[in-house]
Amino acid sequence: MSRFKEKGKKEIPAINTGSLADLVFILLFFFMVISTMRESTLLVKVAMPRATEVHKLEKKSLVSNIYIGQPLNVAALGTESRIQLNDQIADVSEVQAFILAEREARNEADVPFLTTSLKVDKNTRMRIVTAVKQELRQVGAFRINYSTTKAQTAL
Amino acid sequence: MVKKSPTINGGSTADLAFLCLAFFMMTSSMDTDSGIVRRLPPPLDPNIKPPEIRERNVLQVQVNLHDQLRVNREQIDISELRSVTKDFLSNPFDDPHKPEKREMDIPGLGKFMVSRGVVSLQNDNTTSYEAYIRVQNELAAAINELRDALSRERFGVTFANLRNDELRDAIQRAIPMSISEAEPRNDGGQR
User: Fold this and answer.
1) From A60, A136, A138, residue closest to B32, measured CB to CB
2) Interface test with A, best of B13, B25, B29, B36 (most A CBs within 10 A)
3) Within 13 Å of residue A118, how many CA atoms lie on the same side as its CB?
4) Do residues A120 and A84 lie in contact, with contact meaning Cβ atoms separated by under 8 Å?
5) Do the beta carbons of residue A112 and residue A151 sit within 8 Å?
6) Domain count, chain A
7) At what angle do helices A126-139 and B129-155 cross, to 10 degrees?
8) For chain B, what is the mean pLDDT?
9) What residue segments make up the domains of chain B, in order of their start?
10) A84-113: per-residue pLDDT in tens?
11) Which residues from chain A sit within 8 angstroms of residue B142, using beta carbons?
12) pLDDT at A83
């Protein structure tokens, strides 16, 4: 039974910290994968069309988003395309109030540079898009952006 | 007896990993928005009559309810739209059926013959957004290619790489983004 006998007093070994780096890397990759930086949860389905002639929007703080598409909750809202402003489904008539609220939240000097980004599902009919554009014209939000994903090759 | 090799102190690799983490956090762009930028016209004053535009100066682009494309009442494929638009706006041989040009004095470019051509885009209420964007994209591409060509000819770089704001402005005035959107048709009914 000498095999299991303690051989006198032993020093506590130092904990090997070599794998700490690996743990940090695993955390890094984990957060890189799960983080999608979206400010508002989408209530409508938005699969954006592709285009080649796209520009990047420079100042993200000066962009207000309008989402248009089929509601995700088809059972409650039907299949007709709807507008989403901030975190809720809205009507066309509420667009002007939304733009005014967005202006209110910004610095006055920045107001002329406010851009409205239209994030519209590619299967949407133009009727609702035209209606929103008319509202934007009425309220004086002339800078708009048709949000698209960049296509590498010609369509 | 085998000689024990000395272990490398691994304590600092964690710091290195943190450095990398901080670096990537700084440099990674959080899905920036991109798209086709347009300027909407101000609302029409009902008392002011819109200016008459001569027929030769208008390129009528229509997208119907089946997402088909018609240019000046002739059905064409979307792949042809870019060259048709370029040909219309530049009018290289001064064709009397294509837009007139007027001489303008543009700072940075000198005297330049600016086309008076206007692309009139009309869609149906039931046109799909995808088709609409494809047409907008082709029109934008046509104008960008014309601007690129002029910029390369005069300044030796493409328009996208032209950094001087004054020269960019000159090019934009020489080849204006003249797309006008007409009231949509309603052939598709309440579809």
Assistant:
1) A60
2) B36
3) 32
4) no
5) no
6) 1
7) 60
8) 84
9) 55-181
10) 988 888 898 999 999 999 999 888 888 888
11) none
12) 92
